[in-house]
Write a structure and sequence with these properties.
It contains twelve helices and 15 strands. It is an alpha/beta fold and about 375 residues long. Bound molecules: NADP nicotinamide-adenine-dinucleotide phosphate. The site of NADP nicotinamide-adenine-dinucleotide phosphate has 31 residues, from helix 5, helix 6 and strand 9.
Length: about 375
């Protein structure tokens, strides 16, 4: 055999072994560790945690220590915290590729959740924007907890008085995603026609309302059972995806925001107007290793051949955007849709429900039962 073939076969074998090793490492799941039983000296919070990867059964409510308040920090008593698909992605560690950042074998950060709303209960000496008693909402890792410590410069703004804690706690990830998809990536202008695929979900219910607030003509794609709700939050037109395929219809759109990933990019682009744009928020769920990333990688390859601009977006949480959303809520133009509320001790059920993919608006965990959860935790010890 010629030397160059031997080299090629050798390289192929090394690559195969390396990829197999990487795949085995990424998919390895360490056993679930119990929460530490030692009493915590100093301040603590009840928090939902995941000490291993797996189904919602791995989630538990436990006490975690809180750091001492620094001069530029404030303490928030959380009243409501919403769950997002990213919470169950982190809980399962899927797609596996995300474990490169979240932790190999088990999560490096055991805390769960991002979105919250609550009341400021203490402020450091240098804090000027907030005072004790202020009602706030925002985003922070580990938000499924009854108490959070945040920097004054963190992702935190005042809650408008006309929305509930559950509604404000539902804003963070979903509403930011909807806003950035429409305004930044989609460059939506007043008078344009926008189609929201997945209009009845957490992101979609915000997208419909934000697109209306931006002066667009909105078509929402959802199932028949959610048609009235999607019309009720402002959609001018609704397509029931179980009865009709919007990519096979005559209507053209200036912007499509896709929260589902059930149609190819070329099918979506096929129903865009001449100046139309496609913004992909979610790819097709496809396998454990790359999951939705597979279709997004594919988009990179086909993108140069598409007749209209198409791109995947990743939302970046931003305080100014939270303020924009607070202003829209204050004026009544955006009103978060809450599907279900669960008590803290049932946070695992909340995430299990969301994971089934049938939520109508947002799913929220209420913290007003934190005392009961605490009592149950103490009794279990
Ligand atoms: N790229 C980013 O930065 C980013 C940020 C946030 C979220 N995401 C992703 O965006 C996706 C949506 O998030 P979400 O919070 O809105 O999820 P969600 O609340 O779980 O979405 C559930 C909704 O999807 C609807 N749905 C399911 N299949 C559908 C279909 N074929 N056509 C139209 N609607 C359908 C369901 O309606 P029915 O029950 O009637 O079917 C349900 O109302 C998730 O995959 C999430 O991971 C991405």
């Amino acid at each position: 055999m010629k030397r160059r073939y031997k080299v090629l076969i050798g390289l192929g074998a090394i690559t195969t072994v390396a990829l197999t090793g990487l795949a085995m490492t990424l998919s390895h799941e360490s056993a679930c560790e119990p929460a530490p039983s030692a009493a915590i000296a100093g301040d603590s919070t009840l928090a939902v945690t995941a000490r291993c990867y797996g189904s919602p059964e791995v989630l538990q409510v436990e006490r975690l220590p809180l750091p001492a308040l620094l001069p530029d920090q404030l303490r928030v008593q959380v009243r409501a915290a919403a769950v997002n698909p990213l919470d169950w992605h982190y809980m399962r560690g899927k797609p596996y590729v995300m474990r490169l950042s979240s932790g190999i074998g088990r999560p490096e950060d055991v805390r769960v959740g991002v979105d919250f709303a609550g009341v400021v209960t203490a402020v450091g000496a240098e804090v000027t924007r907030f005072a004790v008693g202020d009602e706030v909402f925002g985003a922070r890792n580990g938000a499924l907890a009854d108490t959070l410590i945040l920097s004054e410069d963190g992702l935190l703004v005042h809650k408008p008085a006309n929305v509930s804690f559950a509604q404000a706690g539902a804003v963070g990830v979903a509403a930011t995603t909807a806003l950035q998809a429409l305004r930044d990536h989609g460059e939506l202008k007043a008078g344009e026609r926008v189609l929201i695929n997945g209009a009845s979900g957490g992101v979609g219910t915000f997208a419909v309302q934000i697109a209306k607030a931006m002066g667009a003509h909105v078509t929402g794609v959802c199932s028949g059972r959610n048609e009235a709700m999607v019309r009720g939050i402002g959609a001018d037109q609704v397509i029931d995806y179980k009865r009709a395929d919007y990519t096979a219809m005559d209507q053209r759109y200036d912007l499509i925001v896709d929260m589902v990933g059930n149609h190819s990019a070329s099918a979506n682009v096929g129903v865009l107007s001449e100046r139309g744009r496609l913004v992909i928020v979610a790819g097709k769920k496809d396998g454990d290793y790359l999951g939705p990333l597979k279709s997004l990688l594919w988009l990179r390859i086909v993108e140069p051949f598409l007749e209209r601009p198409a791109g995947f977006m990743l939302a970046q949480l931003d305080r100014d955007d939270l303020q924009t959303l607070a202003d829209w809520m204050a004026s009544g133009e955006v009103s978060p849709v809450i599907d279900r509320e669960y008590p803290l001790e049932s946070a695992a059920e909340a995430i299990a429900y969301l994971e089934r993919g049938r939520a109508r608006g947002k799913v929220v965990v209420r913290m007003d039962t934190a005392e009961a959860a605490n009592a149950a935790l103490s009794a279990a010890r």
